[in-house]
């Protein structure tokens, strides 16, 4: 049983949730610090390799647990989409166009920075997207993981894992507090295809506009789903080709010239992370339904505790809601295991089920919505980033081997994708008359 085998991880996660929620939301000027960020940072300190508190196996397990705990949040977000489906349908063009904002943001902000820092063709892999798993796969397939483009995409992947959520949360909070953008546009900007970064950005936006919590999470969830579904094709057929053309036009260098100069070489960082990803994939595939259900229940308990400590919600008020969210997540896991449906990720099925059961015209939707509303969005985020923080230590050695150049580039890429998508959404929502 996972509780017995990994009791240290779960105990630390519990402690992190309690400590983070006790500290609560802190506002300093334009900057907002949320409990989920304390959990992430403190978890990273606990998992720091030099402290020898957790071993590499335990850190890897914490990372795998994060993907299951994330389903709880995805279901919560989906339950907010159903009641607001009419509003989202009226914003359909904005949801599509914000994807262009995500792409042009990484290109406009990230690529000039990378070229200025003389990164070489690593700039292509680093700047054509925010570089999560699907984007790494595209570069690995087209150029190879040991190519300069492969080094760039893996560098961005590591940076996103280590501090992507932290940075995007701070940035979203600052921009939200300026009052320059409508909360719906900010929410769309946060739906960048990474569940952890979306959760972090939405948490900051919700902290500024608490009265719009349900609609913010609905817009962010819809935008994130849109990015996840069409983002792969957008990256493959638009983002990557355009980034390559712009890079070669600005630098005047073709790939074959750089290859001839000996820029393609084996990379230990890429090798290490690729191996870890393969191991993580094997663990996920071997995971039993019982383990998944246990982790979902544990996530529900941690959310109940976080909701009580941080938001003073009586556990009796959101207990049934947590059970419903767990049931939705488990149903999604079961569907994803059906032969022929495995090509679509679990998060897709969980989100779709949550949306359907919360549409007002569906029988029982009102009851489900009423029961799950007391489950606070921010309380559901903290356990996820607690496990995420406990997994960070395994990536720190690889991060140390990266060139320092990837850090400012990663910050600019993340900033660009959020700012430009928000700007595009703001314009389109005004044109559509939604805001």
Automatic annotation (TrEMBL):
InterPro entries: DUF3100. The chain crosses the membrane at residues 7-25, 31-51, 63-81, 87-111, 155-178, 184-209, 216-240, 293-311, 318-338, 344-363, 375-393, 405-429. Signal peptide: none annotated. It holds the Pfam family DUF3100. Keywords: Membrane, Transmembrane, Transmembrane helix. This is DUF3100 domain-containing protein. It comes from Megasphaera hominis. The lineage of its organism: Bacteria, Bacillati, Bacillota, Negativicutes, Veillonellales.
């Amino acid at each position: 049983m996972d509780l017995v085998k990994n009791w240290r991880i779960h105990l630390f996660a519990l402690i992190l949730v309690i400590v983070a929620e006790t500290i609560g939301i802190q506002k300093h000027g334009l900057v907002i610090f949320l409990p989920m960020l304390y959990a992430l940072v403190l978890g990273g300190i606990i998992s720091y390799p030099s402290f020898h508190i957790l071993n590499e196996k335990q850190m890897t397990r914490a990372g795998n647990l994060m993907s299951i705990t994330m389903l709880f949040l995805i279901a919560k977000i989906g339950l907010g989409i159903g009641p607001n489906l009419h509003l989202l349908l009226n914003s359909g063009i904005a949801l599509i166009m914000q994807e262009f904002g995500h792409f042009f943001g990484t290109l406009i902000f990230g690529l000039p920075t990378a070229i200025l820092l003389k990164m070489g063709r690593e700039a292509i892999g680093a700047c054509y997207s925010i570089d999560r798993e699907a984007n790494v796969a595209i570069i690995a397939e087209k150029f190879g993981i040991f190519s300069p483009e492969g080094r760039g995409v893996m560098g961005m992947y590591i940076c996103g894992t280590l501090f992507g959520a932290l940075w995007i949360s701070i940035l979203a909070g600052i921009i939200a507090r300026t009052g320059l953008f409508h909360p719906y546009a900010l929410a769309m900007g946060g739906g960048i295809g990474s569940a952890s970064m979306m959760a972090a950005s939405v948490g900051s936006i919700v902290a500024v506009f608490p009265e719009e919590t349900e609609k913010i999470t609905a817009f962010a969830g819809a935008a994130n789903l849109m990015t996840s579904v069409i983002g792969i094709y957008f990256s493959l057929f638009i983002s990557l080709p355009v980034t390559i053309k712009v890079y070669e036009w600005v630098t005047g260098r073709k790939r074959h010239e750089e290859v001839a100069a000996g820029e393609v070489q084996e990379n230990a960082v890429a090798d290490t992370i690729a191996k870890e990803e393969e191991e993580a994939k094997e663990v996920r595939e071997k995971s039993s339904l019982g383990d998944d259900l246990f982790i979902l229940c544990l996530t529900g308990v941690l959310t109940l505790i976080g909701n009580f400590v941080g938001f003073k919600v009586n556990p009796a008020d959101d207990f049934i809601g947590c059970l419903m969210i767990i049931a939705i997540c488990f149903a999604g896991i079961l569907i994803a295991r059906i032969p022929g449906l495995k090509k679509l990720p679990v998060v897709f099925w969980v989100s779709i089920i949550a949306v359907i059961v919360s549409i007002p015209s569906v029988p029982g939707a009102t009851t489900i919505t009423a029961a799950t509303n007391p489950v606070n969005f921010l309380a559901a985020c903290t356990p996820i980033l607690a496990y995420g923080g406990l997994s960070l230590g395994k990536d720190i050695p690889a991060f140390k081997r990266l060139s320092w150049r990837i850090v400012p580039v990663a910050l600019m890429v993340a900033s660009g994708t959020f700012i430009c998508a928000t700007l595009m959404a703001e314009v389109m929502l005004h044109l559509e008359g939604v805001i």
